[in-house]
Amino acid sequence: MPKSPIKQNLKHRRALDHKNEARFALQTQPGINSDLVKLISKDKDEPKWMLDLRLRALTEFEQKPMPTWGPSLDKLDLNSIRYYGKATDETEKTTWSEVPQDIKDTFDKLGIPEAEREYLGGVGAQYESAMVYHSLKQDLSDQSVIFENMDTALKQYPNIVKKYFMTKCVPISDHKFAALHGAVWSGGTFIYVPKGVKVELPLQAYFRMNSELMGQFEHTLIIADEGSQVHYIEGCSAPQYTKNSLHAGCVEIYVGKHARVRYSSIENWSKNTFNLNTKRAVVDESGLIEWVNGNMGSGVTMLYPSSILKGRKARSDSVGIAFAGSGQHQDTGSKVIHLAPDTASTIRNKSISKDNGICTYRGLVRIVDGATNAKSSVVCDALLVNDNSVSNTIPNMEIREKKSDMVHEAVVGKISQAQIFYLMSRGLSEDDAKKMIVSGFIDPITRALPGEYSVELNRLIELEMEGAIG
After folding, report:
1. Is the model's pLDDT at 22 over the cut of 70?
2. What does residue 259 show for φ and ψ, rounded to 5 degrees?
3. Are 252 and 169 contacting, i.e. CB atoms less than 8 angstroms apart?
4. Measured distance CA(100)–CA(93) in Å, rounded
5. Cα separation, 151 vs 165, whole angstroms
6. Rounded to whole angstroms, how far apart are CA atoms 230 and 198?
7. Contact status, residue 133 vs residue 92, Cβ threshold 8 Å
8. What is the C-alpha separation between 32 and 40, in angstroms, rounded?
9. What gap in Å lies between CA 306 and CA 176, rounded to an integer?
10. Which of 177, 253, 268, 374 is positioned for an S-S bond with 281, CB 3.0–4.6 A?
């Protein structure tokens, strides 16, 4: 007999909210200063240039004001956050059985080993501030594909990391939380795909915060050389606590000529988490970046995957779904900068608001003078589950080239009683009818994910509809 969807959802809810007893081989005191930054760098045995970058970033962080243009950050006390913590002093493992048992149990509950066996070409798993596991299939390694955690890459490929790390894509001066990230980053993923190599199976990393009042600051750096192809998937989660946590990761992607990168992310931080993430890609001639984003959980999210189309015929395709329930403000969207002729971008954004939840689409499309024949299309669809939900659309269009095309469309709709009545007349309960309407609404997003991950996204949305997360 098939498993009960209710039992499956309850099991998934328990896995997401599972927490281990906090234990640390090293944990810093709350707050941030130069001594903390030096401690992180020393513990990682980093080269001097990285320490210098961290200290410059700290100065930028201290000088930049808190953002005031989006959701309120008044409840985020940066002095109460612990910015670095390692659960174990053991080195990163390449065999799952060697991972410490309590950490392994957490990732087992989240389905990471099973996903590796069935769907993935490589897996990384980060717990608190450090990667605990990493592996890559041998056939990819034989093709000189590099898939390492960022700390290892810094030691093994220092020249490549120094060239790309927070230089042209996301500089440390970009904004306050990019600067904070540059000062205290730890863990994350480094991918290099050589010229002409196509990675057929996705690579995945999963980031887990276990303890309260923690910050997680993983750094993802992807370099796809000319004519290469890769699909990278990130998953994120944390258990629910009564005190706030902070996630301020950073993703930098370099897409070479005629290369293609798909970046898929399902972020499901608990509702006591501030998710202030920065994601950006630089795309060369005839390259393609594809963003697929699912944002659930977190009390406040500010996230706008961005593409800089610097080469002729460079393209960006962004699809995203955000869900905001009670006490949540999902401020998400996408940004595209057209710098070259014949570039093209599409942004498709969907949001669901329920029980006073607030979803805000905040986007930017900039077509500079000289980017002739550039084309951009933005479509924002919002679904309100009930009358006290909120949806905002804040598009910003800066079109400075007359020979270009720009289309924007925004639609806000509600789940109607007629729809619910029709489905209930076919034997569904009211709750199941609402879930079916929502499932159809997010279908364009789930179809952009591999099979198992589309199931995961649908399951998370169902849990949110039941009010079962956070």
Report:
1. no
2. -95, 165
3. yes
4. 10
5. 12
6. 6
7. yes
8. 11
9. 17
10. 253
pLDDT of residue 2: 36
pLDDT in tens, 248-267: 999 999 999 999 999 998 88
In the numeric block, the tokens 């450090």 are attached to 130
Output the six-digit token pair for 239: 């258990």
pLDDT exceeds cutoff 50 at 470: no
Q: To 10 degrees, what angle do helices 112-119 and 451-465 make?
A: 150
Average pLDDT over residues 446-467: 68
Tell me the pairing of strands 26-27 and 85-86: antiparallel
Summarize pLDDT for 329-388 with one digit per residue, the tens. Answer: 999 999 999 999 999 999 999 899 988 999 999 999 999 999 999 999 999 999 888 888
Cβ atoms of 309 and 345 within 8 Å: the answer is: yes
Q: Which residue has the tokens 């980093």?
A: 46
> Would you say 253 and 287 are in contact if contact means Cβ atoms under 8 Å apart?
no
Instruction: Provide the 3-class DSSP secondary structure of residue 226.
Output: coil
Task: Give the C-alpha distances (Å, rounded to integers) separating 25 from 38, 50, 85, 87, 412.
Answer: 18, 23, 8, 5, 50
State percent of the chain over pLDDT 70: 78
The single-letter code of the amino acid at 256 is: G
Q: For residue 254, which phi and psi values (nearest 5 degrees)?
A: -115, 115
Whole-angstrom Cα distance, residue 90 to residue 98?
A: 10
Tell me, what's the pLDDT at 6? 36
d(CA 263, CA 223): 12
Mean pLDDT for the chain overall: 84
Token code pair at residue 149: 């955690």
- Nearest of 228, 238, 133 to residue 189 by alpha carbon: 133
